[in-house]
Specification:
Blueprint lengths: L1 H22 L11 H4 L1 E2 L3 E2 L6 E3 L3 E3 L3 E4 L2 E4 L4 E4 L4 E4 L6 E4 L4 E5 L6 E5 L13 E5 L9 E2 L7 E2 L9 E9 L4 E3 L2 E2 L3 E4 L6 E8 L6 E4 L5 E7 L6 E4 L5 E8 L13 E3 L15 E8 L1 H4 L28 E6 L5 E3 L2 E3 L3 E6 L6 H6 L5 E2 L2 E3 L3 E4 L24 H7 L6 E3 L7 E3 L8 E4 L55
Parallel strand pairs: 2-5, 3-6, 4-7, 5-8, 6-9, 7-10, 8-11, 9-12, 10-15, 11-15, 12-18, 15-19, 18-20, 19-21, 20-22, 21-23, 22-24, 23-25, 24-26, 25-27, 25-28, 26-29, 27-30, 28-31, 29-32, 31-33
Antiparallel strand pairs: 1-2, 13-14, 16-17, 34-35
């Protein structure tokens, strides 16, 4: 009995100490409690549930399973390291999110066999888009508004003058069921990058079931390879505010039941909604992207609210459903370029829009927007010049149509001989292995004899002929349908709602 009594006293003392540490506030002029003691308490929680939890010192999260609670900020000067194989579950009640602020760093370097997973804390089978917040990284690179507050609700500013800024590493990382709406139309994306610099490493990232965009870049110069956007709510790849990085090898697959009220695109690219000529101009370069649209997935697909209901995946959290639009939309002064890519089954193929007083079409005509060696198929219409019009008709102001023209600027630009783009009415001509994600074992690589394979001279022009881009001989994200060429194997998860973590 004496031994048991002593053990009870010891446990009581320890629990009292933990509670004191987790609740302690810094007094004015006093010392901040040791972050290493604050960050993980009660065994496996990260954060304390409020929206101002700060990591002010460097800390390593050892491999294991944890609950992320509230908004956790990695502040200036701190580095948060996450070991391979770690699973971090975002808490729904506290709208959990992880925000790396300017001058802070995250080292989340998983492996092929042990990826790092950020997912929902809801039980398997009941997870939905927007169960928690998401991942935000803010850096000191330039954007075209000098300094901006990050999208989605967090306090954090991004922007500076260091385009080589280093915010750390994200490699072999999955982000699932993010995008909780902090307020109406204020969701955090799956992965949000604000003015992130080129010293940051981003590769092998899968964002699944995001309740907003899967990937969004606001300014910055960070490069990325091997990105997967799976069943997102809004856009797959969204670039804004002067983003000027390079991206190679990306896969985006749509669930035909899920589209946003704002009208969902594979790519959506703006320079600035209020100042489309603001410098630096959004000018990213994407190569070897595969976009699988809704129409390919289900032959009964219709682009309206009678079909697009989200079904059992509707989170009923205020996020509004809408329509699908384009595989690639370039507007508001953006100079996005896309090369060596394939897109299938969207209502519209390409949109180059002169909205908000911009001269996006003029930029395309003068060679500032490059669109070369891309293959489209199974689009309802090839191109459109006006948001939400779904008309292949010329518009030079993204408002009124020139009825004397035979087609849109976007369609004619795609078809220019010098661009070497190709359009097929049926996706079967592309000879992709099995691209329908609603069927078992989808595979997005080309079969032998596909026109996407055995190509030459794909990387001869600037900026493709620099050291970042792998000089490959195929169109789209995959060399072939063989397992050896499937870079998604081993670390991705295309059925996370039924995975036991």
């Amino acid at each position: 009995m004496k031994t048991l009594f002593k053990q009870m006293i010891f446990v009581t003392v320890i629990l009292t100490s933990l509670i004191a540490v987790s609740c302690e506030k810094a007094e004015p002029g006093g010392e901040t409690p040791d972050v290493k003691e604050q960050i993980i308490f009660n065994g496996n929680n990260i954060g304390n549930g409020n929206q101002e939890f700060e990591i002010k010192e460097s800390h390593t999260i050892e491999s294991g399973t944890y609950i992320l609670k509230g908004w956790v900020y990695v502040t200036n000067g701190a580095t948060l390291t996450i070991e391979p194989g770690t699973v971090i579950k975002g808490d729904k009640d506290t709208k959990a999110a992880l925000i790396v602020e300017r001058g802070g760093r995250i080292i989340a370097q998983g492996t092929l066999q042990q990826p790092i997973v950020f997912t929902s804390n809801q039980p398997a089978g009941s997870r939905k888009p927007g169960d928690w917040g998401g991942i935000v990284i803010c850096g000191k690179a330039t954007n075209n508004k000098i300094e901006m507050i990050i999208e989605g609700g967090p306090r954090s500013m991004h922007g500076g003058n260091d385009d080589a800024d280093n915010s750390g590493i994200l490699s072999y990382v999955r982000i699932e069921f993010a995008g909780y709406p902090f307020k109406t139309d204020q969701e955090i994306n799956g992965l949000t990058m604000g003015s992130v610099g080129s010293g940051t490493r981003i590769d092998h990232i899968q964002v699944s079931y995001s309740n907003d965009d899967s990937f969004e870049w606001f300014g910055g110069t960070v490069n990325a390879k091997y990105l997967v956007a799976w069943y997102g709510w809004d856009d797959d790849f969204d670039t804004d505010a002067g983003y000027r990085g390079k991206v190679q090898f990306g896969l985006a697959v749509r669930n035909p039941l899920i589209a946003d009220k704002s009208i969902s695109n594979g790519f959506e690219s703006d320079n600035s909604s209020d100042a489309p000529n603001q410098l630096p101009v959004t000018n990213p370069h994407f190569s070897n992207i595969t976009l699988i649209g809704p129409a390919l997935q289900d032959p009964s697909f219709v682009n309206n609210s009678s079909y697009i209901t989200a079904g059992e995946l509707n989170p009923n959290n205020g996020s509004k459903l809408g329509q699908f639009q384009a595989a690639i939309q370039i507007r508001r002064g953006s100079n996005l370029s896309c090369y060596n890519s394939v897109a299938i089954g969207f209502p519209v193929g390409l949109m180059i829009c002169n909205d908000k007083g911009s001269e996006t079409q003029q930029a395309a005509s003068s060679g500032k927007v490059n669109f070369r060696y891309n293959f489209f198929s199974s689009m309802t219409i090839l191109g459109s010049d006006k948001d939400a019009s779904f008309k292949d008709s010329l518009s030079v102001n993204s408002s009124t149509f020139d009825k004397s023209a035979s087609q849109s600027f976007s369609s004619s630009f795609f078809a220019q001989t010098s661009n070497n783009n190709t359009y097929y009415t049926s996706h079967t001509e592309l000879m992709l292995s099995q691209p329908n994600s609603l069927l078992p074992s989808p595979k997005w690589g080309p079969l032998p004899g596909s026109p996407l394979s055995n190509r030459s001279n794909l990387f001869t022009i600037s900026p493709l002929n620099d050291s970042f881009f792998d000089n490959v001989t195929f169109i789209g994200a995959f060399r072939s349908d063989a397992s050896v060429d499937n870079w998604t194997l081993g670390w991705t998860n295309f059925n996370p709602q039924h995975t036991t973590y």
